[in-house]
Amino acid sequence: MPAIPFPKRKVPRSVALEELAILERTYPDAITALDYRNDFELLIAVILSAQCTDARVNMTTPSLFAKYPTPADLGRAKQADVEKIVKSCGFFRMKARNVIACARDLVERFGSEVPREREQLESLAGVGRKTASVVMANAFAQAALAVDTHVFRVAHRLGLTLGKTPRNVEEDLTALVPPEKWGAATHWLILHGRALCKAPTPMCSRCPVNALCPTPAILAKSLTVRARSGDRAPVAPRRTRSVSKGKKR
User: Fold this and answer.
1) 148 is catalytic
2) What residues of the chain score a pLDDT lower than 70?
3) Could you list the residue range(s) of the whole structural domain that residue 154 is in?
4) Which of 121, 182, 196, 231 counts the most CB atoms within 10 A of its CB?
């Protein structure tokens, strides 16, 4: 089925805040799904997670860190050896090159410690704004909101943003969420994207934000057009009349 179009208008701020409040109640204990024991392991795991599932990364990193437990160890590694370990994560040549170079940066420029400041993090090999935000929020409990594919998709479908770039989306979301909840909000949106607001087709009939979200109407219209054209399509989702506050789903 073709991708569902995003809403063309933002929802009112009051609706946006209620949508986010529902997600907060639905995913109250949301944390990163990546397994790690220290800041260095989290940083490398996030680099490996680009265009790869966290589950796959978690299957890969135990072997990687067993062989290269410190930045110094990984920085001295041969690329071919690291490639063999991270191959299942996709783009393995680039990722192997990046994690080795990143480890060297940590040793040579930061005394083998993961820096806390965004500018310093983004100066590391293989680290962009999203990776830096994940590390800042999860390793150091700093105010940072990361926009990955799930966050980008869910924020658009909920009508929280019309942003064309991840940075635009981040700006819209951080204007709605208080700084102390930026890290948590990242995980609300990621978990919702994985559980219900899937690509290409969201599971609107099961969604706790159904009554407020503009996407069910868009999906219903899309399914109606497909049905009239003779395409076989699932039954359009029904809107719930109300949302039960405080209830986990």
Assistant:
1) yes
2) 1-2, 225-249
3) 13-30+146-227
4) 121
